[in-house]
């Protein structure tokens, strides 16, 4: 038994040695991709919680990378966990624009979740700039919106008048009217630069 077992140990040793050599190269490549992804998210304005969720880098590595890319320390504090922000008038219009872009891309472009999010957010900011409106939806809020939709806490509902798709709570009634077709009394009257104006 002992004599026959010895050759097996000898033949398996080179294989184990090869695996040990290959593993670090794969790890370095993976880490490089994670750093590249994290840097892109930081440039988009992602908060630390987003970076921790969407990359496998350690908190300490992310802190150092954030300071290097953004030139400052990351903001402290927890992310908002309420869906209410996405349902108020101006915020809902911005959120709906982004989510419609995101849903459109998800059906026609083969991208992973993070690349899909960043591409949709870039298109959202481009449209907002063309309209000369302040972008109310930050990248982190856009990420949170997708999480809320995936969790079934928010959805899109068609407006009964304009037939556009708007962010709503899950069980909105069939006769839903959006904030553009039926704006609140003070909507569009803000004098702040970059606010939505109704004519």
Mean pLDDT across the residues is 84
Order of helices and strands: HHHHHHEE
The assigned structural class equals mainly alpha
Determine the number of helices (DSSP H or I, runs of at least 4 residues).
Answer: 6
Terminal Cα span: 91 Å
Task: Report the principal-axis shape.
Answer: elongated
Helical content class: 55-70%
The strand order across the widest sheet is 1-2
> Major beta sheet, specifics?
2 strands, antiparallel
Q: Bin the strand percentage.
A: 5-15%
Question: Can you describe what's shown?
Answer:
This protein has six helices and two strands. It has helices at residues 2-44, 48-54, 59-70, 89-108, 113-130, 139-150, and strands at 154-158, 165-169. The termini are far apart. Residues 1-13 and 15-24 have low confidence and may be disordered. It is mostly helical and 199 residues long.
Describe the protein's topology.
Layout: H1 2-44, H2 48-54, H3 59-70, H4 89-108, H5 113-130, H6 139-150, E1 154-158, E2 165-169
Antiparallel strand pairs: 1-2
Helix pairs in contact: 1-3, 4-5
Question: What labels would you give this structure?
Answer:
about 200 residues, mainly alpha, two-stranded antiparallel sheet, 6 helices, 2 strands, about 5% strand, elongated
